[in-house]
Design a protein that fits this description.
mainly alpha
Length: 52
């Protein structure tokens, strides 16, 4: 179990906070992949348009 899985499981971070650390084109230095986000939260990661 990764740090982020534990943090989410214990309620230390929210789904919205995890969205900030997903590796994307705009955030290439994130810490988790889209698949990792889905594995941790059970939700599909969708990039929000218009956020710079």
């Amino acid at each position: 179990m990764s740090f982020w899985e534990q943090a989410y499981g214990w309620g230390w971070v929210t789904t919205e906070q995890l969205r900030l650390i997903v590796i994307t084109d705009k955030m290439p230095y994130g810490e988790i992949t889209e698949d990792g986000f889905h594995r941790i939260t059970g939700e599909t990661f969708a990039q929000e348009e218009g956020i710079d």
